[in-house]
Amino acid sequence: MGEALIRGMLKAELVTAEKIMVAEPDSSRQQYLTSQYGIGVTALPGELASFAQVVILAVKPQIMEPVLQQYVAHLDESHLIISIAAGVTIAAMEGVLGDSARIIRVMPNTPALVLAGASALSGNRRASEEDMETAKALFSAVGICVEVAENLLDAVTGLSGSGPGYVFTFIEAMVDGGVLAGLPRPVAEQLVLQTVYGSARLALETGEPAAVLKGRVTSPGGTTITGIQVLEEAGLRGTVMTAIEAATQRSRDLGS
Ligand SMILES: NC(=O)C1=CN([C@@H]2O[C@H](COP(=O)(O)OP(=O)(O)OC[C@H]3O[C@@H](n4cnc5c(N)ncnc54)[C@H](O)[C@@H]3O)[C@@H](O)[C@H]2O)C=CC1
Ligand SMILES: O=C(O)[C@@H]1CCC=N1
Question: Per the annotation, where are the binding residues?
Answer without folding.
Answer: 58-61
